[in-house]
C-alpha cells in the first residue's frame, strides 16, 4: 500500500484525507476540514467573492502542506460544485493553483457521482445486486445507481443542496410555516424529473448526511426522515448542536438536508444507509487502480 492524499473543495467545507491505499481498499490515517461556506455566496450572487476565494486558496495551501508533512506520495486536489456553478469558478481554480503550487481539477457532476459511488461501496460493502448512492452536498445532490462491482449505470445531478436550500428559503430558525411549505415545494420541483432505477439498497454520503445519522440514526427511512423534518422545523440549531455534538453551522443545514433526503428516499423507496465513504475515498481508489493497471 502507498500513502496518498486528496484535498476536496466543496460548497461548505475544504477537506483533507490521507490514507494508505491500494487497488483493493484503503485505510484512512488522517482527516482534516476547514469550513468556508461557499454555497451561500453561490446562492446569493452566483459568484464567489475575492475574499472567499483568497481564504479558500489559503486553506488548500495549508492542507496540501499537511499532506506533504504526512509523506503523501501523491496528492489530488479537486473542486466540486463551486467550480461548476460559480460564474468565476475559473478564478477560484487559478487562485488555488497559485497558492498551493499544485494542479487542480474540477469534477463534473457525473464524475462526482461516480467517485461517490465507488467510495461509498468500498467502505460500506453493500450486499445488494443493485445499489444507489446519494451524495448530498451544499450546492448540489448527486444520485448514482449501479452494480457495486462495475459502478453506476445511471446518474443524475440536481443543482440543489442543503446550504443552497437553506440560504434560499430557510434563513429563519425555526422557520415560519410558509417558509417550510415553500422549501417543500422547491425540493419537489427540483427533483420532479428524477426517476432512478429502483435499487435494493441505498447509501447516502456527505457531511450533512453523517450529521443527520448522529441525530436520527444511521438508517434513514421514510418515517425517520418525516420525523426529522418535523423535529428540526420546531428546533433551533443551537439546541441540536448542544444535544448531539453537531457544529452550529452544520446544525443549521439539517432541516434542508432532511427535506432533500426525504424527497430522494421517496423516489428510491428503500431506506438510506449513512456511509462513511464518499467522493474522496472514490478518487483515491480510482487512482490506485489506475496505477495498478499501469
Q: How much helix, percentage-wise, in residues?
A: 40-55%
Number of separate helices: 13
Q: What is the CATH C level class of the largest domain, in words?
A: Alpha Beta
Written as H for each helix and E for each strand, in order along the chain, the element string is EEEHHEHHEHEEEHHEHEHHHHEH
- The CATH architecture category of the largest domain equals 2-Layer Sandwich
Summed over residues and divided by their number, the pLDDT gives a mean of 95
CATH topology of the largest domain: Nucleotidyltransferase, domain 5
What structural category do the secondary elements indicate?
A: alpha/beta
**Structural Rg:** 18 Å
**Intertermini distance:** 16 Å
Q: Which spans have pLDDT < 50 for at least 5 consecutive residues?
A: none
Q: How many strands, which pairing sense, and closed or not: the largest β-sheet? A: 6 strands, mixed
Shape: globular
In total, the number of domains comes to: 2
Tell me the CATH superfamily of the largest domain.
Exopolyphosphatase. Domain 2
How many β strands by DSSP?
Answer: 11
Query: In order across it, which strands form the biggest sheet?
Result: 8-7-6-9-11-10
User: How large a portion of the residues is in β-strands, by DSSP E?
Assistant: 15-25%
Amino acid at each position: 500500500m502507498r500513502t496518498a492524499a486528496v484535498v476536496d473543495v466543496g460548497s461548505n467545507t475544504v477537506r483533507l484525507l490521507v490514507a494508505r491505499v491500494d487497488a483493493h481498499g484503503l485505510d484512512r490515517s488522517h482527516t482534516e476540514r476547514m469550513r468556508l461556506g461557499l454555497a451561500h455566496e453561490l446562492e446569493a450572487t452566483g459568484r464567489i467573492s475575492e475574499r472567499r476565494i483568497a481564504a479558500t486558496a489559503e486553506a488548500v495551501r495549508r492542507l496540501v502542506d499537511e499532506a506533504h508533512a504526512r509523506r503523501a506520495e501523491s496528492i489530488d486536489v479537486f473542486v466540486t460544485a463551486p467550480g461548476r456553478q460559480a460564474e468565476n469558478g475559473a478564478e477560484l481554480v487559478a487562485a488555488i493553483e497559485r497558492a498551493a503550487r499544485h494542479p487542480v481539477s474540477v469534477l463534473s457532476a457525473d464524475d462526482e457521482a461516480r467517485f461517490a459511488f465507488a467510495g461509498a461501496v468500498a467502505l460500506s460493502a453493500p450486499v445488494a445486486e443493485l445499489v444507489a448512492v446519494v451524495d448530498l452536498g451544499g450546492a448540489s445532490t448527486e444520485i448514482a445507481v449501479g452494480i457495486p462491482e462495475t459502478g453506476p449505470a445511471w446518474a443524475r445531478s440536481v443543482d440543489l443542496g442543503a446550504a443552497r436550500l437553506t440560504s434560499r428559503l430557510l434563513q429563519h430558525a425555526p422557520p415560519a410555516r410558509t417558509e417550510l411549505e415553500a422549501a417543500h415545494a422547491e425540493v419537489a420541483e427540483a427533483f420532479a424529473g428524477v426517476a432512478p432505477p429502483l435499487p435494493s439498497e441505498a447509501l447516502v454520503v456527505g457531511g450533512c448526511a453523517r450529521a443527520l445519522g448522529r441525530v436520527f440514526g444511521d438508517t434513514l427511512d421514510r418515517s425517520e426522515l418525516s420525523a426529522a423534518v418535523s423535529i428540526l422545523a420546531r428546533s433551533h440549531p443551537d439546541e441540536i448542536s448542544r444535544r448531539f455534538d453537531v457544529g452550529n453551522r452544520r446544525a443549521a443545514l439539517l432541516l434542508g438536508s432532511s427535506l432533500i433526503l426525504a424527497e430522494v428516499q421517496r423516489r428510491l423507496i428503500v431506506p438510506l444507509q449513512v456511509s462513511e465513504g464518499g467522493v474522496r475515498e472514490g478518487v483515491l481508489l480510482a487512482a490506485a487502480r489506475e496505477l495498478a493497471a499501469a
